[in-house]
Specification:
With 161 residues, this protein is mostly helical. The protein has helices spanning 22-26, 36-51, 77-92, 99-109, 120-140, 147-160. Helix 2 (36-51) crosses helix 5.
Length: 161
């Protein structure tokens, strides 16, 4: 860097990455949707968040498929962030009375200036929760091309776990 110039910091952008194996698993399931890939990611995510199962970073694809919430998910950014906060508070055993701990967690995973309302760490956690949810999904529901059968089994899984 020369005198009088300012170094521009590197900005790391959080990006949504599929769980490894998800593309092959879901390849036969044809959803009629404007965002079918994110819909499948979201199903895995909800299951991982509900069960508080965080996959390993190695369970997540290296390439990303989207860097912000698509279509109808864009208006749900605050709800998704809240679900992540709830899961992390529970997983880490943080009580709401631990104001400093809660504040530290929220500063780490939230970014009010991001369209997703999440920091890079927050999106990385979402990807890992999606991977955790996918591992359960893959165990309990065999791959199928029948959308009705899949959703019946998926809903049963959400309710019974």
């Amino acid at each position: 860097m020369t005198e009088g110039t300012t170094e521009i910091p590197q900005i790391r952008i959080g990006r949504f990455k599929e769980p490894k194996g998800a593309e092959a698993y879901f390849s036969r399931l044809k959803l009629i949707s404007s965002t079918p890939k994110f819909d499948k990611y979201y199903m895995c995510l909800l299951l991982g968040l509900q069960e508080r199962i965080l996959g390993d970073e190695s369970d997540v694809e290296s390439g990303y498929f989207v860097d912000s919430y698509p279509g109808p998910y864009a208006t749900q950014a605050d709800i998704i962030a809240a679900l992540l906060i709830e899961a992390e508070l529970d997983r880490q055993g943080l009580m709401l009375s631990d104001v400093q701990g809660v504040e530290r967690l929220m500063r780490r995973i939230l970014s009010p200036y991001s369209s997703t309302r999440l920091s890079v760490d927050g999106i990385d956690l979402l990807n890992r929760y999606a991977a955790g949810g996918f591992s359960l999904l893959r165990q309990d529901i065999p791959p199928t091309n029948d959308v009705a059968t899949f959703f019946k089994l998926y809903c049963k899984m959400l309710i019974e776990r």
